[in-house]
């Protein structure tokens, strides 16, 4: 099973983005995910990790929920 962590900047008000990504991942992969964790951070962070590997970092990538879901897909079981 796959663990996804979404770390977001609280002072920047990125909670809505974190919730959007979390909801999209759960809709797409549902029971194929072991956990989707929303983790608080600061300093402008918005990073998504799948099984500990960074699949999205706002400092390097444009925010796109669909692209983040696609980036997580290889970490999810073959049934997803």
From TrEMBL:
Keywords: Redox-active center. The keyword Phosphoprotein does not apply. Gene3D superfamilies: Glutaredoxin (3.40.30.10). Signal peptide: none annotated. It comes from Halorubrum trueperi. Pfam families: Rdx. This is SelT/SelW/SelH family protein. The keyword Lyase does not apply.
